[in-house]
Amino acid sequence: xxxxxxxxxxxxxxxxxxxxxxxxxxxxxxxxxxxxxxxxxxxxxxxxxxxxxxxxxxxxxxxxxxxxxxxxxxxxxxxxxxxxxxxxxxxxxxxxxxxxxxxxxxxxxxxxxxxxxxxxxxxxxxxxxxxxxxxxxxxxxxxxxxxxxxxxxxxxxxxxxxxxxxxxxxxxxxxxxxxxxxxxxxxxxxxxxxxxxxxxxxxxxxxxxxxxxxxxxxxxxxxxxxxxxxxxxxxxxxxxxxxxxxxxxxxxxxxxxxxxxxxxxxxxxxxxxxxxxxxxxxxxxxxxxx
Length: 290
Ligand SMILES: C[S@@+](CC[C@H](N)C(=O)[O-])C[C@H]1O[C@@H](n2cnc3c(N)ncnc32)[C@H](O)[C@@H]1O
Fold this sequence. Notes:
The chain is α/β, with parallel strands linked by helices. The protein is 43% helix and 21% strand. The protein contains twelve helices and seven strands. The protein has a seven-stranded mixed sheet with strand order 3-2-1-4-5-7-6, with helices on both faces. It is globular.
């Protein structure tokens, strides 16, 4: 099924906001891989390609950066942004993470940033297969898969007052207006884990990766207005993005008005709003065969 998580219609908005609100996480993930010039890198469930393009800038024309995703809209936006940058060694393809169309041992580095995977075990096995022995794998989970630790202890960005951070407000309003949406899993988005650290380490071990290390990071992005905070939350929150077109439009108006009113109170008081993206990173190597 193409676009199983319904990103097509929001791909442009997703790209615009994620470049603002998520890029520090991307930079951290990329740095963890130690990617270098001339290497081949694969970005699985690349979305609008922010990480793939950042990787392309590192590997340069003697390397190759390939992004794959199942949403045609995301791949379109990724390709058009890459063309603007003129990176001919950066390619995007419509492909299912369940069946990667690459030979075994093709890539020096395989990455997946907030991927939505239909069957994580099988997708991780695919990512392991296409990685060269000795190559590096790095994945990061957000939402239900992320650790609680960075949210509690992340340093605030200097210009955002603690009271202006509205993490959880969108979810709270959803639970009041559309409780059925938060009670069920949304598409391929990761499900909430009791202990995400243990779950991620186990997954990587089972896939065959060695020298596994975990890391957490969180970034609180500034938002000038309640409207733009609402727009970002609407596209990034899978439970809402995927259900929105089927919701009663009048109820959506009431929900949005409620969120905007509550966010505006904070905006008036603190000047800037903050929304945090938290990530739990897992990294490992594909063992070299004897
Ligand atoms: C939260 S987005 C992350 C996008 C990008 N990695 C980023 O960090 O901006 C999740 C992505 O997973 C993609 N996806 C869902 N199921 C997929 C599958 N079976 N194969 C490949 N991509 C898939 C969605 O289309 C979406 O672009």
